[in-house]
Give the backbone structure.
Amino acid sequence: MIWKRNQPDKEQVYQQLRGEMLDYTDYANKWCNENDEPLVPVPETPNLTSTQYRKEMLPYTGEQVYVRRGVARQLGIAAALLAIRDDKLKLEVCYGYRALEIQRQNFEKQKALLSERYSGEELLAATHRLVAMPEVAGHPAGAAVDIRIVKRDKPLNFGTDIWEFVPDSYTFSPYVSKKARRNRILLRSAMIAADFAPYDGEWWHFSYGDKEWAQYYGEPFARYGQVEFSINPAGDDSRGDVHSLSN
């Protein structure tokens, strides 16, 4: 009974985990030295695949998932590292580039939902934990991916579904099974080995080259800023319209 009384409750644990995550204020002022890399479809290889699950992106990218060319290269490295461990494992990219317009809509919608609980800077921080602030978000830069590992076309057990926005989706939540924790660490280790930065508020979210990545690794500036992008009417792969919006 004494042992139980001394244990922190769940909300205390979640609060501690949140305190260890990067906040948007940590990297909002990072400079972006945009390198103008094109957005390209995630390549299909024996250990790397992508599925466009979000219909909101169909007018912008069709049924393919797009990322910056450098991000696609690093995804290939992460997939190869997984294959060394088990050649039946496959990295599935479920989301890549997100139109900035959609990011703004999602952010404002989430902020409105939280406005009864928070205000001012607390409201922005709480919203950002669920939907990144558009000005610093990695998805509109083509730099962030939502990702999971599948085996024989079935997702591994990660304790929660992808895009299940609950505290147990925090990467290091102690309230998921041992198997789920092992799978989260497997995914995180492969992605970090390929130079991605994790966002530990969502076990599925990683980025390469954006402001959060630059802050995580102590880089002086980000490589990719927000862009406006859509495939051209002919559906000509990476030759879509890209307009940089970075500083």
